[in-house]
Specification:
heterodimer; A: about 110 residues; mainly beta; six-stranded mixed β-sheet; 11 strands; about 55% strand; globular; B: about 120 residues; four-stranded antiparallel β-sheet; about 0% helix; about 50% strand
Chain lengths: ~110, ~120
């Protein structure tokens, strides 16, 4: 079957850096997405990787290694508003999105 | 601003009483999706429309139906809600280019409709 694994919950300190990992096993690969979801709200798009390497977008960066079936989302200079769930999703060979259950990130002052 | 709008934001219904949730979009996206999301779980795809073509996920219960009367609107009908159907229902849209799923195909979500079943 197809599977996306992410840690359930992580805690970090305001101003610090945190890395949220995602490993996947899917039928083919056509891109990996990271979405942010605040409690009770809809997911919003953060980043997209289809080639190996690092994509940087402001305080957020996302890395992909297709050979390892691995990605991470790196958040720098953490702010309290970054407290949210971070969802990893992979598009498989049928262009279907396979979602992870999300990582709840708790930021402490 | 172009957006995806869902109504109602909160819906309370009784066990077995039909519910309709609506979604409208001003993005002119050709693909629309309905997801069910329960607390701390991954979004679960119920249906999607690629233009007018309806695609039902194999494990979507018959209790769930959908309509897309035009490009801008999509409805989710829950014919006889059970306690297990209490969830957040998310509508999303995307634009697909040449060939299904080409490009980044980023999903734009509505704010969601939270369904409570008493």
């Amino acid at each position: 079957g197809q599977n996306i694994d992410q840690p359930t919950e992580m805690t970090a300190t305001e101003g610090a850096i945190v890395q949220i990992n995602c490993t996947y096993q899917t039928s083919g690969f056509n891109g990996l997405f990271w979405y942010q979801q605040h409690a009770g709200e809809a997911p919003t798009f953060l980043s997209y990787n289809v080639l190996d390497g690092l994509e940087e977008k402001g305080r957020f960066s996302s890395f992909l290694s297709r050979s390892k079936g691995y990605s991470y989302l790196l958040l720098k200079e953490l702010q309290m508003k970054d407290s949210a769930s971070y969802l990893c999703a992979v598009r498989d060979s049928n262009y279907q999105l396979i979602w992870g259950a999300g990582t709840k990130l708790i930021i402490k002052p | 601003d172009a957006m995806v709008i869902q109504n109602p934001r909160y819906q309370v219904t009784q066990f077995g009483k039909p519910v309709t949730l609506s979604c409208s979009q001003t993005l002119n996206h050709n693909v629309m999706y309905w997801y069910q999301q329960k607390s701390s779980q991954a979004p679960k795809l119920l249906f999607h429309y690629y233009d007018k073509d309806f695609n039902n996920e194999a494990d979507t219960p018959d209790n769930f139906q959908s309509r897309r009367p035009n490009t801008s609107f999509c409805f989710l009908d829950i014919r006889s809600p059970g306690l297990g159907d209490a969830a957040m229902y998310l509508c999303a849209t995307s634009r697909d280019g040449e060939g299904y799923g080409s490009g980044a195909n980023v999903l734009t979500f509505g704010a969601g409709s939270r369904l409570t079943v008493l």
